[in-house]
Amino acid sequence: MHGATYASRLYDVPHPGASWLKATTMAGYAAYALDIRGYGKSGVPGLVDKAKPYARATDAIKDIADAVNWLCVRHNRDKIGLVGGSWGSITAAMFSSGALKSKIAALVLYAPIFGATNQGWLSFLSDPSDPNQFNPAFKGARPVCETSTRARWDAEIPPGKNWRNESVFQALVQSSLGDDPQAALRDPPAFLAPNGTLLDLWEAFNGRPLFDPSRITCPTLLIRGGADTTSTRSDALALFDVLAAPVKRYVELANGAHFASAERLGPQVFRTANAFLEDQFWM
Length: 283
Prior knowledge:
Layout: H1 20-26, H2 57-75, E1 80-85, H3 87-96, E2 104-110, H4 119-125, E3 126-127, E4 130-134, E5 141-145, H5 146-156, H6 166-179, E6 190-194, H7 196-205, E7 220-225, H8 233-242, E8 248-253, H9 266-281
Parallel strand pairs: 1-2, 2-7, 7-8
Antiparallel strand pairs: 3-4, 5-6
Helix pairs in contact: 2-3, 4-7
């Protein structure tokens, strides 16, 4: 499950060694990545014209339910493993604590976001005239171009650190643009990212969690880059402490930021997640 800006393409970057999906299949699993409504290849016509932020977590878990039910039938299984990153950690956790949680055998929350105040994000998401309100300028969706992608990613990496491969960056940007048939018609070329996700993040970063960890009872792994300022250590550990999972692990990888899975650290992220899933499925 993808995050707030980049669709499932982030987990299938067409570059050697950069695809989480491929690494998962190489570990022996059938791997799928879902584009939530409005994202990537699940684009929605007229998205930018919508007056309100589109595609919140409550909508996303309906899409997850459709995918999970389809996968269980396709592979003749009662349960699957679920991975969610960033905003996708919220949707994955929400699903895994809901009515269909029995269908999740193991849960991996990468760059997890729970419910701690994050002033850096609040300054971006708040109404400039009233910091206690969500910025009304965020309508249905926003365009994301190469320049904004680079700026967003650079802001997540500590100064002087060379954690990102430029060829991987270009592969992610160009494939993301290619997934949106209207991207080339925008100036500069840009794909769309729904803004409902930002409203969810507004709630979480104001200390208002969108899910109840005490209802998550499947084995759960939390994994984050040590320098991540979006998924903070304090927030992730607070989540870890209240998870009801009988098996739970917290892994922090040094020299990685919020997009560690697409940085030089990527293969280590993949191995960590796959090792956890193997432990749960083959116990």
